[in-house]
Amino acid sequence: TTKFTSALDIPVAFVVKNVKLRGKLHHITEKGLEVEHIPISVPFITSIQRKWQSKGLLLVRLAGVELAPGGMAWLQQELKPKQMIWFQLLGREDSALECLVLVNKGRFLSVCLNEEILRQGLGRTARIEGLRHDSRLYWKLHKRLLRAELKALKKNKGIWREESYSERIRDRISNNKFVQTLKQFASWLRGS
């Protein structure tokens, strides 16, 4: 029932047990997602607690994901301000939380943003900070993230997209010095 306004407020036991918390998205920044924690509400107690709760946002990073330049734009398009998200605590580094971020899509379906970004080819798999390398959870999550990245690679999406043969030929022709000289001559003729 406690509202967390700083990553340091969250008990170490919550991080160790990988507790899922709920929050309201406020901003998407280069550093991560700024989220307002929404505690579990107990009717009478919550109304009293709201008077003493301080304001503050948690900085939530997508664990195991290194965003590509298009990843930030995709996040801003997909996520709306004040949208409810769930974030599973995996680690804490200074004032930031390393988390798996879940977004509800419909009544019974939720999507893991960490995996979805990799599936779209908008990032690369990175080390999951905060989890021990020898833990079963680390390898389970790392395997899921690698599978998502592999799907983007197989489907030729995002950063894994390769130019087709015809696109490469067209680029070579348009970048040819002789063709560029002809284009300049044609534009000079039109201008005269």
UniProtKB/TrEMBL annotation:
<protein>
    <submittedName>
        <fullName>CC033 protein</fullName>
    </submittedName>
</protein>
<keyword id="KW-0812">Transmembrane</keyword>
<dbReference type="GO" id="GO:0016020">
    <property type="term" value="C:membrane"/>
</dbReference>
<keyword id="KW-0472">Membrane</keyword>
<dbReference type="InterPro" id="IPR042421">
    <property type="entry name" value="C3orf33-like"/>
</dbReference>
<dbReference type="GO" id="GO:0005615">
    <property type="term" value="C:extracellular space"/>
</dbReference>
<dbReference type="InterPro" id="IPR035437">
    <property type="entry name" value="SNase_OB-fold_sf"/>
</dbReference>
<keyword id="KW-0007">Acetylation</keyword>
<keyword id="KW-1133">Transmembrane helix</keyword>
